[in-house]
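Recap quiz, item 2
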Amino acid sequence: MQKQKVIVILGQTATGKSDFAVKVAKKYNGEIISADSRQVYKGLDIGTGKISKKEMRGIPHYLIDVVSLKKKFAVTEYQKKAISAIAEILSRGKTPVICGGTGFYIDAITKGVVFPTVPPNLKLRKILEKKSTEELFKILKKLDTRRAKNIDSKNKVRLVRAIEIATAIGKVPEIKETKSPFKFIKIGLYLPEDKLKKKIEKRVKKMFQMGLLKEIKRLKKAGVSDKRLKEFGFEYFNPTPEKVIKETIKYAKRQMTWFKRDKEIKWFEPIESKAILAFLNESSDKLQVKLK
RNA sequence: GCGUCGGUGGUAGAGUGGUCAAUUACAACAGACUGUAAAUCUGUCGCCUUCGGGCUACGAAGGUUCGAAUCCUUCCCGACGCA
């Protein structure tokens, strides 16, 4: 059977993914699934650069505004929801277009990573978080030598989670990837460094103009704690334009470190939109040919 | 003009005779990534290197000393105070 085609549009922040995805969706009878770890939350709009209703130009967008700020969202939930969204879109004879900059989320779908199903154990976490990384590493070593070997022994967050899994089910399962029933066509949008920086500056300034500070005030009023605000990213904790620009540039670099590993991504500058559309046509043709 | 304090690596800023190529932070560069992922974490960060080490460096030039970023002299520059 032919694998059904899913278009993926990824790239660093401020490269114009959202707009481009709408364009592609228009052209290919598509619907968009966002791959952004923060845009899933209701109420984080300006700081996350969420696309507006108007900018959506009538294209349905999935996985935006799907959880309350009080709930914690995680990759696994994203994975589940995104995969069912893909199925649903395809069942209506439309093309799913995944668009976003959260590499981890994109891989969760396109690589079919199987995550351990152990839920967070807040009590245990509280205890573990008080310990030093050395202590945590020792504990993990005792519980699961295999995972201890490949874990980052200085990364507390990872150590805590690994111990959490190991205490629940004995050992951390080896990482597994399952073959996806879909064919993903990955398009990466990139900009030369100086252009990217300029776009980031522009974008951040616009954020402040649009009322980022007001948005934060509103969140605080709604009972969001400082700690939680920090979790929502640097835009949400005592931001100044300079600080946000600086942090965004660093973040963009981290994104690229992630994307670089994926050799399936075909990279384009956003201005090459014709070339991209041609590439998409070609990719879908190839699929058709394989069919015969 | 006199006096005081200061001039340290891309920046800020420690160090005040040896363990100093120089704490640390930031920036920069590279990287990791098993339910927090705009998160979390790692490495490199004067030049050269056969990775043992070699060379040049703490405003400039001299000097003291076995040894100086650190002490002395002069000069240059900056801040402040007095004229």
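Confidence is low (pLDDT under 50) at residues 287-292 of chain A.
The first strand of chain A starts at residue 4 and ends at 11.
End of item.
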